[in-house]
């Protein structure tokens, strides 16, 4: 088994990028009269099906004072319905061997199931019931809010990196609702009430604001019959206006110092950049994806080579680009400063800037560029080995308003990018005007 995987991996590294520019597996799309869009992808390797119901609502839809509504609703929709009393939905799925999960993101909320193909009908019935008749009591809500408050304390408030990232977003997104934390601010969670939550449910959990993705051992005719039976009677509803996150054009440099006890100094940097949805052309977004890959994703990346391996200033570093957003996103760099070093976060920022500026003036080698392209291509290739990942990609693209097949052009786009493109993108987007930083100092160093 392992030898087969190794052979596939070696082949992936040796084949030229255009090899990956192939079409997706058999994928079918239909829409019910209610507006519910259904995307079915056939994958008959095993008698398993991934089903995901995506709603186009998440943290970026929330306005001031509303943060955490989408996430709280995700917690409540399975508390009861017209067909199943409190907590029974998840118990039914579990008894049938169905793995169920739910996730709230900035741009969407989705409910995912992984099951044997003969369990799909039950999962769809429960999802339809959830869409049409979820109900919960004030007592249930107050109990669940305590769970959410504890979730916030343990995953955000008690984690230094989570706090740094959360604060970074508040200054990086000056006008955009991407500054909203998915869990919500604690003061908004504290005052969340049943009326607001039920209104949020009634406004956004409608078939004409949803997408159903099914990937696995199914046929389109089989799925259409099941979906029509379970969802066909649910009527479309008027939807609120979905306000797209819009950022200011002239931002200027922004910085924030977090003074909290930390075993070592930390730095988070962000640049405001377009996403695949907002870029003037897809090549710009795929170029930013490649630029991000070059920054810290391998041990041969300049920042890692100079600042970790050669100078020992950093204990670790990581970067991420928001490719899939409804609005503009961020390209972020995180740096953990070695506990043995005395450099401040501000000093390390200057060292990182030197590496970024070198990217603008000195072309990366052709070999380095090709390796970075292949890493991106193979990541997606092997992610698609899992039907859940295929479904998630489809849902994420469609939920931000892009066609499900958009990333099929990624390999060809990456292949066309040159070292000059990387220099141009670095010069355009890695600038002071687009820059934000959050600093956290380590313990004061005592002189011997």
TrEMBL record:
<protein>
    <recommendedName>
        <fullName>Peptidase M16</fullName>
    </recommendedName>
</protein>
<dbReference type="InterPro" id="IPR011765">
    <property type="entry name" value="Pept_M16_N"/>
</dbReference>
<dbReference type="GO" id="GO:0046872">
    <property type="term" value="F:metal ion binding"/>
</dbReference>
<dbReference type="InterPro" id="IPR007863">
    <property type="entry name" value="Peptidase_M16_C"/>
</dbReference>
<feature type="domain" description="Peptidase M16 C-terminal">
    <location>
        <begin position="196"/>
        <end position="375"/>
    </location>
</feature>
<dbReference type="Pfam" id="PF05193">
    <property type="entry name" value="Peptidase_M16_C"/>
</dbReference>
<feature type="signal peptide">
    <location>
        <begin position="1"/>
        <end position="21"/>
    </location>
</feature>
<dbReference type="InterPro" id="IPR011249">
    <property type="entry name" value="Metalloenz_LuxS/M16"/>
</dbReference>
<feature type="domain" description="Peptidase M16 N-terminal">
    <location>
        <begin position="37"/>
        <end position="183"/>
    </location>
</feature>
<keyword id="KW-0732">Signal</keyword>
<dbReference type="Pfam" id="PF00675">
    <property type="entry name" value="Peptidase_M16"/>
</dbReference>
<dbReference type="InterPro" id="IPR050361">
    <property type="entry name" value="MPP/UQCRC_Complex"/>
</dbReference>
<comment type="similarity">
    <text>Belongs to the peptidase M16 family.</text>
</comment>
